[in-house]
Design brief:
Helix content: over 70%
Number of helices: 4
Largest sheet: none
Structural class: mainly alpha
Distance between the termini: 26 Å
């Protein structure tokens, strides 16, 4: 049972932080996807596959990993918005206590308090 909750005013602040982060994350994801597309197009246009294309392959893999990480980050932010809607936002899923406001301002998708996260190792 959740005893403590953040006020509507506080939740509004967290919602704005999350929406801002989602907006910025979408921009970054679009840039990464554009870079990936550009990278694939330029290497396929040359028509010649060289053995020494390992740098291009490594760059594509890095861009792909960054895009995947960014998409996962956006999903976590969307889940945080859902927790605001269902009244569980800001509550540590291990202890049931409120997560520190400063932590939520820095990591608005956090589901664990610092203490709970540190105790997990």
């Amino acid at each position: 049972m959740i005893i403590n909750k953040y006020s509507k005013k506080e939740l509004k602040e967290f919602r704005e932080i999350i929406l801002d982060k989602i907006s910025k994350a979408k921009e970054e994801l679009n840039m990464l996807e554009a870079s990936l597309t550009e990278n694939k197009t330029s290497s396929s246009e040359s028509g010649v596959i060289k053995v020494d294309d390992s740098a291009e392959v490594a760059e594509r893999e890095t861009l792909s990993e960054l895009a995947t990480r960014q998409a996962r980050f956006m999903n976590n932010l969307e889940a945080a918005l859902q927790r605001i809607e269902n009244g569980t936002y800001g509550v540590c899923r291990m202890t049931g206590k409120l997560i520190n406001k400063e932590r939520l301002r820095l990591v608005p998708h956090a589901t664990l308090s610092v203490e709970a996260k540190n105790s997990r190792g």
